[in-house]
Amino acid sequence: MNIAPDMRSWLVAAMIAMFATAVVHAQEAPAARPRAFYISEFVVTDREGMKPYSAQVESTFLPFGGRYIVRGGSIDTLEGDGPKGGMVVIEFDSRERAQAWYDSAAYRKIMPFRHRSATSRVYIVEGAVIPPNH
């Protein structure tokens, strides 16, 4: 088959563009990063008794890569029964890191302050942080 040089250049350019488009679309979306979230709903019953816990808790989870996502602030319940008091959410890179912090000697040392000075419901929830636009 005899194709004019201008047409051949156009066809080659079109094929390259189609291939490049296919490669871009074939790439996998960025993987969701596994995370774990320590979630605590609490009602403080003794503010003075809670102060040692509040003053020390962050220093216990920082070595495990924990970081506050939610600490205090108002809660607007949209459905069902909302928390009666406050809420804390601490993010960790994995469930294992969250559990290791919860089981650590440093955290176990201050936990009795929370138990004596508040009522709480505590969870570790595994989830993923999905990259934007996916």
Give an overview in words:
The protein has a single domain (33-129), classed as Alpha-Beta Plaits. 44% of the residues lie in helices and 27% in strands. It is an alpha+beta fold and 134 residues long. Helix 2 (47-61) runs antiparallel to helix 4 (105-117). The protein has helices at residues 5-26, 47-61, 95-103, 105-117; strands at 33-44, 67-71, 86-92, 118-129. A 4-stranded antiparallel β-sheet has the order 2-3-1-4, covered by helices on one side.
List descriptors.
134 residues, alpha+beta, 4-stranded antiparallel beta sheet, globular, DUF1330, Dimeric_a/b-barrel, DUF1330 domain-containing protein, signal
* CATH fold annotation: Alpha-Beta Plaits
What is the global morphology? globular
Task: Describe the largest sheet.
Answer: 4 strands, antiparallel
Q: Return the CATH architecture.
A: 2-Layer Sandwich
The tally of helices reads 4
In the predicted model, the low-confidence regions spanning at least 5 consecutive residues are 22-26
**Radius of gyration using CA atoms only:** 26 Å
Question: Which strand order does the major sheet show?
Answer: 2-3-1-4
| Intertermini distance | 45 Å
* CATH structural class: Alpha Beta
Beta-strand segment tally: 4
Proportion in helices:
40-55%
The percentage of residues in β strands lies in 25-35%
> How many domains make up the coordinates?
1
In N-to-C order, the SSE pattern is: HEHEEHHE
The secondary structure category is: alpha+beta
Q: Mean pLDDT across all residues, rounded?
A: 83
